[in-house]
Amino acid sequence: MEAAIIGSFISAMATVLGAVPLFFVKSLSEKWKDILIAFTAGIMVSASTFGLMPQAVNESGIIGLTIGLLLGIVVLDLIEKSIPHIDVENDSGISTFDSKSLLVIIALFIHNIPEGLSTGFSFASENDILGPMVAISIGAQNMPEGLILAIFLMNSNVTKLNAFLLVAVTGFIEVIAAIVGYFTASYIDSLIGYGLAFAAGAMMFIVYKELIPESHGHGYERPSTYSFIIGLLAMVYISYMFT
């Protein structure tokens, strides 16, 4: 339980850490946004493919993997459909903290819930490597997400301090979700495999629906592709270090 809380806390702190440059920079070039996002995508694909999915098969078999994976994709898809997508990184024309800004924050709150559940499910698994691997991969995604949200809020006339605090709050929802996921999987052992597959499906949906298209939409496809591969290999090496 303590490991799950610590892991989810680290993932949440990654969101906060991503917002730290807010106090030193006012903008981030499209090239570096794409490179960071692609690097994150590589990490998440690696964690899902080499960590979550094999362990889900071990826990619940191929049927459990299929059901959990599809459920994770469907849940994230419903979230995307229910809350209009807003291009946080490019929408800088907001002059006041209006309902659109609030919608972005609410969307990220809901978006972070399945990420927290993924961390909780992973730490409930018997595979000791899986929890840290997922926490690191989600944390890597949270860093650029935190910076992009912070810059968006600044462009909405929110003070740097308030923007930083709002980013922190959106991150800490993952801690609560992780605790819920951990207890659910711990008390119902048969759900662990499904939960891991759910986490893999949710992460893969984020990668292919959001991260890869965003990293290839501004003319920097080649450096983004290399960054993706580096991110994938980085997670492979990290997981190897835990073995």
UniProtKB/TrEMBL annotation:
Pfam families: Zip
Signal peptide interval: none
UniProt protein name: Zinc transporter, ZIP family
Family note: Belongs to the ZIP transporter (TC 2.A.5) family.
Record-linked InterPro entries: ZIP
Primary localisation category: membrane
Membrane topology: Multi-pass membrane protein
Protein location: Cell membrane
Entry keyword set: Cell membrane, Membrane, Transmembrane, Transmembrane helix, Zinc
Domain of life: Bacteria
Residues spanning the membrane: 6-24, 36-56, 62-80, 101-123, 129-152, 164-185, 191-212, 224-242
Presence of the UniProt keyword Metal-binding in the record: no
Record keyword Plastid present: no
